[in-house]
Write a structure and sequence with these properties.
globular, 290 residues, 8-stranded mixed sheet, Rossmann fold, alpha/beta, 10 helices
Length: 290
């Protein structure tokens, strides 16, 4: 059988721009897993958009041969909301780091989850601000010494997975940039999910967190047990804030109407079969006479 000459391959998703991450950065693993997942799904580059905010990992849209936009700090999901609402037929993928997504972008993250926005959000979690040279981030473990916490981080860390499950994301998983096979599967499933798919990828920063992290994480790595009920929110939350192990896999998955579904329903009801409401009827609805 002759090969399908029209089939997209990994190289079809690569641009001529070369990544400028530090040698050994976990984000290389995420980028390559994304290439593989897109090829697996045969995503049409001309019908795909990759969006980001600011940070080391937020450079990623420039390395993917799709439509893309590298926005300002924390605004990847705000852009994703606009793109998906205006062009619901597009595949929308938002990417970024834990500082970008959990700090200034935390509000957008929370509301994207609860609205069940139909996008994929890949968070590269390195527990530090890498681009701005090693300051404490929302996910930095308590007590860790950084460039901005000489005596140790005094604040409790945010667990992005716990937050996503708690505020309404309908697909939540944890991956590891050093496990290419599993990460590719998780990104593939995230893109296939109809609803807000959040993938928190542990992506070590070798420059400001140390290259020893890869070895430590590999030793702690565990896979979800086969009998895990991903539809059970309580069961999913048992795997958050882990310390001695790092469990990867799809922790939570349910099917719910998306923001787009609900907006379409409103549009259909508003148009209806009868006469549209008059201006006075609309005013009376919002300002009823006593």
């Amino acid at each position: 059988m002759s090969p399908d000459v029209n089939k997209l391959t990994v190289k079809d998703y690569k641009t001529d721009l070369k990544p400028v991450w530090c040698p050994g950065c976990g984000d290389y693993g995420v980028l390559n897993a994304l290439y593989r997942a897109m090829a697996e799904l045969q995503l049409e580059p001309w019908n795909t958009v990759v969006l980001s905010g600011i940070g080391c990992s937020s450079r990623l849209p420039g390395y993917v041969a799709t439509y893309g936009f590298n926005s300002i700090h924390g605004r990847a999901l705000a852009l994703a909301t606009g793109v998906k609402t205006a062009r619901p037929e597009l595949h929308v993928i938002a990417v970024g780091g834990d500082g970008d997504g959990m700090a200034i972008g935390g509000n957008h993250f929370m509301h994207s989850c609860r609205r069940n926005l139909d996008v994929t959000y890949i968070l590269m979690d390195n527990e530090i601000y890498g681009l701005t040279k090693g300051q404490t981030a929302p996910t930095t473990p308590t007590g860790d010494k950084t460039k901005s916490s000489y005596y140790g981080n005094p604040e409790p860390a945010v667990d992005p997975v716990e937050l996503a499950i708690s505020v309404g994301a309908t697909w939540v998983a944890r991956g590891y940039s050093g496990d290419m096979k599993t990460l590719t599967k998780l990104i593939t499933q995230a893109i296939e999910h109809k609803g807000f798919a959040f993938l928190n990828v542990i992506s070590p920063c070798v420059t400001f967190r140390g290259d020893h992290q890869f070895k430590e994480i590999k030793e702690k790595l565990r896979y979800l047990p086969e009998d895990h009920d991903a539809t059970d929110r309580t069961a999913a939350l048992r795997y958050v804030r882990e310390k001695d192990v790092v469990t990867t896999g799809v922790l939570y998955r349910v099917e719910e109407p998306t923001l787009g579904d609900r907006l379409e329903h409103i549009r259909m009801v508003a148009q209806g079969d009868g006469e549209p409401p008059t201006t006075q009827e609309i005013i009376n609805h919002f300002m009823p006479l006593s």
